[in-house]
Amino acid sequence: MPKVDVKKIIQELIVPELQDIKSSISELRTEIKRLDEKVDIEMKRIETKLTSSNNEIRSEIGVLRAELESFKNETNTKFDSLRKELESFKNEFRTEIKRLDEKIDIAIQIRERLAALETKVASLIK
């Protein structure tokens, strides 16, 4: 049986494959590093955009709060004015009701006196 040189077979077959694998791993590491850098750049860009958007949103919220507060104050002022007008109308209405009530009382008294006079006149004519 011929003698097989295992060391020579390993050096001829496996070592070149290992060198190719080592080279591929090195290329992959380089590519991974490049992709990591690209991801970092994109993440910073996105972070900047988000920060900017966040600031814009906060600013807009501040404006909306101010507008809402202004609207609330205007509404409260209008409601206060309306309350005063209603209170004034209510007082005028009560005064008018009292005036009409007094006139009705006078009309009833006049009617009662007229009825009494009619009764007396009718009894005198008979």
Low-confidence segments, given as residue ranges, are: none
Outline type:
rod-shaped
The overall pLDDT, averaged over residues, is 94
Largest sheet: none
The count of DSSP E runs of length 2 or more, i.e. the number of strands, is: 0
The proportion of strand residues reads under 5%
Number of helical segments? 1
Portion of residues within helices: over 70%
* Structural Rg: 52 Å
Distance between the termini: 173 Å
By helix and strand content, what is the structural category? mainly alpha
Please trace the helix and strand order, writing H or E for each element: H
Q: Care to give the gist of this entry?
A:
The protein is mostly helical. It has 1 helix and no strands.
Jot down its keywords.
single chain; 126 residues; mainly alpha; 1 helix; 95% helix; 0% strand; coiled coil
Task: Describe this protein's structure.
By secondary structure, the protein is mainly alpha-helical. The protein is 95% helix and 0% strand. The protein is built from 1 helix and no strands. It has one helix spanning 6-125. The longest helix is centred in the middle third of the chain and has 120 residues, at 6-125. The model has no long low-confidence stretch (mean pLDDT 94).
